Amino acid sequence: MKISKKNILILLLSTIPYTIQHATDQKDTKMSEEQKLKTENVSQTLGVLIDQYAQSTLSDPQASLTSVKLTGHTAVIESVAISSDNQFIVTGSSDTTARIWDAKAGTLLHTLSGHTSGINSVAISSDNQFILTGSDDKTARVWDAKTGILLNTTYGHTSGITSVAISSDNQHIATGSYDKSVHIWNVRTNTLFHPLRGHAERINSVTISPDYQCLVTGSDDKTVCIWNARTGELLHTLFGHTDAINSVAISTDSTFIVTGAGTWDGTARTWNAHTGMLLHTLSGHTRSINSIAISSDNQFIVTGSLDNTARIWNANTGKLIRILKGHTYAINSVAISSDNQFIVTGSSDDTARIWDAHTGALLHTLTGHTNVIESVAISPDNQFIVTGSSDRTARIWRVQNELNQALVDSRKTPPSTPSLVI
Asked: In DSSP terms, which residues pair with 270 in a beta bridge?
C-alpha cells in the first residue's frame, strides 16, 4: 500500500498531542500549572493545524473555478432557476424583469418585461414549457419558456408576491403574498382555483408536494400551514416555532416537511406531512435559518443560516452530521446536487462554496461576485452551478470535471482525530 508524504506528515503530527497529554498525565511530572496550560494550548493548536493541513491535501479549495458572467440586469438578482433539461436558466430581479439565458453559451435568449415592480421569485415547469414569476406589483405572470411571450397574468393579491410554486403536473401554480394569503391558480384557464386564508402575517415561503396532495406555507406569524392542494382545505396548522418561518421544503416522497425559523428561534423542524406531527427539532444554529434543502433520497437535510454556517442533518433521526464552516457572513441559499454528492452554499460574503456532502470537506470556493449572493441552483445533471447576486449579475460555473477529482481527494484524506477538533 502506497502512503503519501502528506499523509505520513499528518499521522506524525497527530501523535504529538497524545505524547504531550501522556506527559501531563504522569504523576511524577513536575510541571507548573502555567506550563500545563501552555502545553494544552500547544496540543489544541496542533489539532487545528492538522485539520487545516488535511484540508490542504484536497484540490485547492480557494482556487475558484472559472465562470460565465451573465450581465444585463440593473438591480439585485433575487432568484435563479434551471430547466429540468439543463438547457436554459431563468433569473428574476428587482429591476422588474426576468431573463432567460442559454445554459451552455450564457447568452441572453429573452427578457421578460411587464412587471411594474421587483421580482422576488421564479420557477420553471417540470416540462420546461412555461416560467412563473412573482412580483411586488401584486401579480404573478406565466411566460412561454421558448418564446418569452407573456401567456397569463394573475390578479387578486392585495400586496406583493413573495414566493411562487408549480405543481408537479404543471396544471396549477401557487403564490404566497405579503397580504397573508396563498392563491392557487389553474394555469390553462388562468382562473383562481383557491384563495387560502389562515395566516395572520405575511407568507414567506410556499411549496407544493411532489404528489400534489398538499401545499405548505410558512409565515411571519411563526406557524406553518398544510393545505389540501386540490380542495384548499386547511389540514393542519403547525405550532412550535418561536419566530418567523423563513423557509419550507417537502421531501421528494411527500412524507415529511422541513421548516426553518428566524433568529429568536434558530431551529429547523421536521414534521409528518400527513398528520402534522412534529418529528424532530434540529437545534444548533445560533441565528436565523435562511434556506433549507432536502437530499433527493430523503436521507439528509441541509440548513443555511445567518450564523455563517451550514449544517447537515440526518433526516431520519434529526441528529447533526456535519457543520460547514468557512463563510464569513450569512448563508442565504443552499442547494444539494441531484446525486447527493455535493452541496452549494451562497453567502453575503460574496462567495459560493462547494462542499462534499459525505465528508463536509470544502471542495471549492467560487469567487468573482462583488456583492451578496442571494440565490444558488445546481443543474439536474450536476454539470454546472448558477449563482445570482446583488451585484446585478448571475454566473454559470462549470464544475463536473473539477469536482470529480476533488470528491475523490476528499474521501481519501484521513479524518483528523475527533478529540483534536476544538
From this structure: 258, 280
